[in-house]
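Readers of this paper often ask what the protein records in our data store actually look like. Such a record has a labelled line for the sequence and another for the backbone structure tokens. Nothing more is needed to write down the fold, since each code stands for a local backbone conformation. The record that follows is passed on verbatim for readers who wish to inspect the format.
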Amino acid sequence: YPFPHLVIYDALPEELAKDLTDNFPISQDINDVNNARFDLSAKEVNEKKEISNLWKSFINFHTSKEFFNEVIEIFGTEILKNNSFQFSNKDNISKLRVGVRNIDSFKTRDILLDAQISINSPVTKKSAVREAHVDNTNKIFSGLLYLRQPHDDSSGGDLNLCKWKDDCSEKDKLRFYKEGLQKKHIELYKQIKYKNNVCIIFLNSLDALHEVTPREITQHYRTFVNLVGELPYDFFQKEKKIFKAIKQSKLLLKDLI
């Protein structure tokens, strides 16, 4: 509640978390961009000679069938509950052909994973890198592994899990939704501090509202791994215009029949 999610503190063995943190690839070419997001995809990680083999192995595992099976082991029941029209049982999900985003395609794969080495650049003006939002409608799950740098004494950059106000109906959600939702429609449910070796994984839906709290001015980078599982289709709607298009299509089909 308010949407399926898992928070893991001390997610990795201490020595592994330290090695990944100490060897976190950070580009020095983006210091003049205020609090912006930059990512290296799994494909790019494997192409860069300067990135350590440890990092490459870590990224490769988190784009593997083995990792996907772990996600399904935890979230399979909830996926079935919310997507019964797509999957009749957990075996249907576990049999999905897993590929890597930007390497494989949906021509031969059923789901594409990515594990991005990600940063938010230093902050020159207090700001939030992402306000309240849900992820793209074809993402079935998302995840974050925080690898905060040891000398980072900045404040902000925590993750807020939010919920719709109780009086919001499904139609209201479609009508009101946009990134940076007005606070009168949502409320804070849980705040997860930006700390080293904390992992958050959640199932995506119109209810999976989350945001990053504003960061104060700092020269430090916000460093993390971004986990993604994408399907070749949208499995929920988040915009009123899509909702209208679906309704119009049903009416058209009814007239044709």
